[in-house]
Amino acid sequence: MDASWVLRRRLATQRLSSAPLRRAGDVVRLLTCVQSQERDHAFFSLGMRSRADTYAAVLAEHDRGAFLRTHILRPTWHFVAPEDLRWILALTSSRVEPSMAARHRQLGLDDPRVVGAALELLAELLRDHRFRTRAEIGVQFAERGSPVAAGQQLGHVLLLAELRGLVCSGPTRGGQHTYALVDEVVPPGPSRTREESLVELVLRFFAGPGPASVKDFCRWSSLTQSDCRSALAEVGDRLESAEVDGQRLWWDPDVPARTTAEHPAYLLPVYDEVTLTYPLLDFPVAQGHPAQETRDPFWAPVVVGHRNVGLWKRAVTGSRVRVEAHLAPGCGRVERAAVGEAAGRLAGFLEKEPELVFGDGSPQLWNGPRAKRR
After folding, report:
1. For each of the chain's 374 residues, which pLDDT tens digit applies?
2. CA–CA dist 346, 333 (Å, integer)
3. Integer Cα distance of 130 and 153 in angstroms
4. Is residue 350 domain-shared with residue 238, that is, in the same domain?
5. Angle between helices 225-235 and 214-221 (to 10 degrees)
């Protein structure tokens, strides 16, 4: 058992190289929470793993409420199943909210009276299924004389409202995210003790994103290593573990992980869980990679075989989707053909015609000067 086995199993467990799940919502339930601050890229993450293989199909599921988009686990957007929302928030938000205390002081949101009044007004504006966008909420706050201003102040009030289980996503309108009251769109679920919730989250994490380490779980969940280890002690033999490259990794042996439809190349979306979740044991980076020393939030990884060989970015215009890819110098005709097939899968998801362009060297990265090849 080595790193190559781990990477193959992750691709299969996450349904990238095994039989797709029936619905996008099934993928969300498998992975428990799917990072989604880049919503349209995250939709593609779900489409790659399910038979909801077009953007329109994934969007329709979202708008029906099959899965939600909200701030959970960490102070960023995630998809989550409605039935998982309340207990995961109850388990994790008490660690997430204090981590933002300094920023909230800067924004003037450290006064509970200001925040409390803003949350009361927000609930009033959304009551009776009046789904509103952030811009619409900002207009109403201004008209009602709220001291909370549009921009970062309002954005963090909405984030707090999500972390506290007051609001979550409603159906999109004109492509825009709307907010809904949790109590109006999410049925109540069974009560759980903290220990029961912790064991459930640990089991779900190692079953979906596994094989993974305790440190991977802590980064993903915002919980502590002590929390994870105490839950693992309760889990008993329901998980298997092994040491790989000096790390103890855990996984659920009952989750199907047989490769059935492996693709030679993957244009993995920005913040895809199969790369984001595992900073310590990830796809090895090819020599001469266009971003060998840094990551860029606007360029996503190209994986060929089990190696991270480059970067890609898309632009959707009219009836076409233009994919620009920058690959490591060792990639030849076979690898480029595989990337072309992957670009075709992306175009099919978007129901557009593909246009693939290979760039030379490194692209201009957002967080630094143009990188040089090694």
Report:
1. 899 999 999 999 999 999 999 999 999 999 999 999 999 999 999 999 999 999 999 999 999 999 999 999 999 999 999 999 999 999 999 999 999 999 999 999 999 999 999 999 999 999 999 999 999 999 999 999 999 999 999 999 999 999 999 999 999 999 999 999 999 999 999 999 999 999 999 999 999 999 999 999 999 999 999 999 999 999 989 999 999 999 999 999 999 888 887 788 999 998 999 999 998 889 999 999 987 666 677 899 999 988 999 999 999 999 999 999 999 999 999 999 999 999 999 999 999 999 999 998 888 776 654 444 33
2. 20
3. 22
4. no
5. 120
Q: What are phi and psi of 100, to 5 degrees?
A: -105, 10
Q: Which helix (H) or strand (E) holds 180?
A: strand 176-181
The number of folded domains in the chain is 2
Other CB atoms within 10 Å distance of the CB of residue 321:
21
Q: State whether 111 and 224 are in the same domain.
A: yes
Per the structure, the complete domain to which residue 353 belongs is given by 283-358
Q: Do residues 256 and 316 share a domain?
A: no
247 plus 288 within the same structural domain = no
Chain-centre distance for alpha carbon 294: 20
177, HSE (Cβ side, Cα atoms, 13 Å): 18
Q: Are 254 and 334 in contact (CB under 8 A)?
A: no
Q: Are residues 61 and 188 in the same domain?
A: yes
User: Which CA distances in Å does 53 have to 50, 136, 204, 345?
Assistant: 6, 32, 24, 9
How many CB atoms lie under 10 A from the CB of residue 255?
15
Residues 191 and 68 in one domain: yes
User: Distance between CA atoms of 318 and 7, rounded to whole angstroms?
Assistant: 37
Q: Are 98 and 204 in contact (CB under 8 A)?
A: no
Q: 200, 231, 263: which is the final residue of a domain?
A: 263
Angle between helices 82-96 and 152-163 (to 10 degrees): 120
Same domain? For 48 and 163 the reply is: yes
Examine the domain organization and report whether 329 and 220 are in the same domain.
Answer: no
